[in-house]
Specification:
α6 crosses α8 (about 145-155). The chain has one domain (about 10-255). By secondary structure, it is mainly α. It has helices at about 10-15, 20, 25-40, 85-90, 95-105, 110-120, 130-140, 145-155, 170-175, 185-195, 200-210, 225-235, 250-255; strands at about 50, 55, 70-75. The radius of gyration is 18 Å and the shape is globular.
Amino acid sequence: MARMEIDRRAFVASLGGASVVSLMSHEARAEALEHYMTERIEGLQESSSEDNGGNIYSTPAKARGTGLVFRMAELAEMPPAPTLMDFMHKRFLTAHGLRSATHAIQTGQPERTVFACLVHDVTQSLCRSDHGWWGGQLFEPYVDERISWGIRHHQALRFFPDPEVGYEYPEMYNRIFGVDYEPDPYLKQTHIDARAHKHYMEARLITMNDEYGFDEDIDFDPVETFEDVIGRQFRQPKEGLGFDGSPVAHMWRTIINPNRPL
């Protein structure tokens, strides 16, 4: 795997400097690093840029949230009954997920795992903290429980090696933060609980493909290539995401229009 090169000093400076980083929890540091790497793989680390969906990204003076969707200075118009493909095109960043899903295909993973890899980090458009839990919740009403469970728990499992399946602790964390990196207690407990769960491998497979999502040497096809996978693995509501009365409809509506005043 081609390792993404990160300028440690530039990354620390982007967070406000070493003194600010020293006050952050280990989980907050890890989430910030993944957010930084995602922006880089998506080509969004300039002061403003345009993504493949025609959205213009910038840094608003008074952002209402931490996710990337809150940095969209101009929002591409969404249809009245939006589908997941509409969100993939117009709201979510996809390069990381497409690389991850492509690697899952190349290594012969089940189709549900391919889908989970494709969307496992899309809630970074909505928030930075605990993106795994947010992602699991966002997709739970529309997918097999193994998919939402895997997305929810991949965040915690990133920090814990599993030699039996060949998963090592991400070298990037040690290189950026030092070998004294210590996951937060709730992540340790989540790992313990997940190891005893019947769906453990669903989340572990996502983590094993997650690292390849930052491999700049992986060629990937556009999201249309995965349209059939999405159609089989995601139950699209006829009313449109955000308008079907599901327990997470409000989350989809926020992603549609993060500037809604009320």
